[in-house]
Amino acid sequence: MKRRLLKIIEYPHPTLRHKSKPLRRVDAELRDMIRKMFELMYEARGVGLAANQVDLPLRLFIVNLEAEPGRGDEMVFINPVVSRPKGQVEMEEGCLSLPGLYAKVRRPERIHITAYGMSGQEIEAELEGMLARVVQHELDHLDGILFTDRLSEASKLEVRPELEEFEEQFLSRRERREIPADEQIAARLSEIEFRYC
Question: What pTM does this model have?
Fold first, then answer.
């Protein structure tokens, strides 16, 4: 697989709807890509970033609630599984793949997560508050779900004009050949999955 320049992709890029596959291996190149994901997340002032937001079909995401290098905890979740949801809370969410768009999303208040860290250690924890919300948002990404999919019907109508604007920009960039055709994207994702999944 040739080295690629990672960047955050925006809605409605097809990889955002691709269901990520579990990882079977972590190599030096993947570690480099994860480091680059942190850099991109900090540049965009985000607190979480899923692999498919940088056009990688891999079941992993990163989190740092401080959104700043050198502060807070840099967390890597590989092959995460969430269970035992408790409570419900509604909070405003945004997304680095939908910059500038915010809306209130209802999610479980507390969750249980199991995953693996970068060096293969098992992670098991009860999460609540902001960390629980970010983990659920990023896990949705790995299943091809965007936070806008979880909005009430009234909220979906409210954000529709902004989504249409993203769609128009995407088509315009594709016409200028800045974004490959769906078939090329699918072939590249398969190549990455063959290597890591």
Answer: 0.95
